[in-house]
Hints:
The chain has 713 residues and is of the alpha/beta class. The protein is built from 30 helices and 15 strands. Helix 7 (180-193) links the parallel strand 7 and strand 8.
Amino acid sequence: RVRGGDLPPPRRRLSALLVTHSYFSFGAGTASPTSLVRRAAELGYRYVGLTDDLNVTGGVELFQAAHEHGLKALIGATVPVRVEDDVYPLVLIAASREGYGTLCRLVTLAHEREERDVPFPVLLAHAHDLVLLTGGRDGLPSRLLARRRVGELEGLLRQLKGAFGDRLYVQLFHDRYRWDQRRARVLRRLAQSLSLPVVAAPEVRYLEPDDYRLYDAMVCGRLGVSVQEPHPKRPQNACQHLPSPDEVMERLPFPEAALNADWVAERCHFELLPERLVPPKARVPDGRSAEEHIVERCYAALLERYEGEALATARQRLEKELATIRALGLADFFLVAAEVTDYCRQRGILAAGRGSAAASIVCYLLGVTQADPLKHDLLFERFLHTGKTSMPDVDIDISSARRDEVLAWVEERFGATTEAMVCNKITYRLPLAVQDVGRALGLPPELRNRLTKALGRDFRGLRPASVAKAEVALREVLGDAPVADVFVDLLARMERGHVRHIAPHSGGVVLSRDPLTHYSPLERSSGGIKLLQLDKDDAEAMGLIKLDLLGLRMLSALERAREEVFRLEGVWLDLADLPDDERVWDLISEGATLGLFQVESPSQQHTSRVMRSRSLKDLAHQIALIRPGPIQSGTVHPYLRRRQGLEPVTYWHPSLEPVLAKSYGVLLFQEDVLRIAVHFAGMSWIEADRFRKKVSGFADLEDIEPDRQRFVE
């Protein structure tokens, strides 16, 4: 039975996949949202819905991939619903932005319960703008029909119909299990008897039939059994791959079910990703807007910190930054960051902003950062520009001894519903993949540990998909055992970036104007930390603002040292304005840096003796030099030799001299990547910012080959 007024025109082929699971179902799916979208586009689908188990972590990636491939994305989740003593996975799909918020609240409620499920009455109370599918093989109708509890099933479906109305659908599926064809016909007749519509919605859990063995191994790992052990939850065949529309219609030859799938997709498509950032609400004096208050604070500090010619230059820079902040609507965000550092100063807690925020004179005047960006020639566009849609990067280091005090204040100040940590997506590297896949294959712990140890330093950082590079090391342990080929094949089938689980970010706190369940479900980590199901990039794409509040032990040491000086000498030191003592630079030049933050490692001690830094600028170059980028690109020794006069300073092109003269022709800073992209390659600031992110974070050269070609052209 088809419902609705504006129905899409009849089609012979299914055009919507409503129920797909990615690897964000954590052990119940093997493909990324991007791969699912790409394959669906190849097969001619127009809509793809992601319904991972009790999370929406893949939602941002889904919508971004759908935009790229010309499809429309649907976001939902598979939610375990408790009916008395039984739990049934039901599929919920958001029909609007408000429905997405309802879904996030419902998933949050499930994560708050020890059982990680939703009681049936709670589901009925959270039906606003949600489409409900009755579930697949383990869903409500299938299991109750199998137990011949038809009367109970009909009663539950009537209650669901009362809550969801015409947004309730009986889900049809066919995985080529025994009796699946008959089961589909029975479900259809049941729906007709209750005047409910049916929908064709096969469960998709991997891309190709050949991925079945990897999926089976993942399921075994989740269930705690090996592939040698039978289990009723294990898949029986390879039919949960992403099927073609013709294959679905062959399994489920019911025209109204296909038409309803298309109609559900049309009804449930909306744009999840906003165009603008949404900063939290700052506290400002009565009668003042955030824009007025930030101008007043900045100009008051400007007159205190600058004078003469420097004042005119600083005023010009300030007006430029304030215009950008007004254009992006971020005055509240900067004032909120200032609230954090104000709180710390008022209570004697050492705190200082760092990172790209140091390039902002607004941050400097508000007291968020301590370094003068004009004095150090820092590029504001590295931090913020009018075309920037990503969140500003504000990292605030806080004395580790008192960080918990600051976090408690942040939660109290902004409310428990508008503050949480972003998550980290923990992806597989070979050691962890060897353990998980080996456990599923029944390899004993001793053998798995030997395999992990055999990877050594050379292969530990590889993704499972690159296992061919480490195959020799693995086969030295496994020998000619039959399991070796299967083991290597399963690892090779894992996608690059396969996410195993999520964990709290080290310091990324999201502060929101609206309840965070408007953007994502909330859950608690094993350590009790409240976190979003969004990482920092996803939070940014959703329009949220993140502050990194990082605990630093060195700041705690400086606090104690300042207190000791005051106790012994009666002098209270201003740590932001210490005298420039030549004896300090003598010790640094000798490599006596043990205990000094960022310059105490053996490689930094050696570089200190070679560079013999005599200024903060020299020290900044030294710290930037001993980083993965310069080390891996082979620029450390050219820099040191040029600084010592052992080789001439050269540039890749004469026009790069104004940008790279300060670093002897060597590329050290991401600000300089931006300057080169804009002034040398002719990119806009928006294009340059994207280019910087790509070339700074690639894993393999092929990832940035298109960017290299675009830069050269």
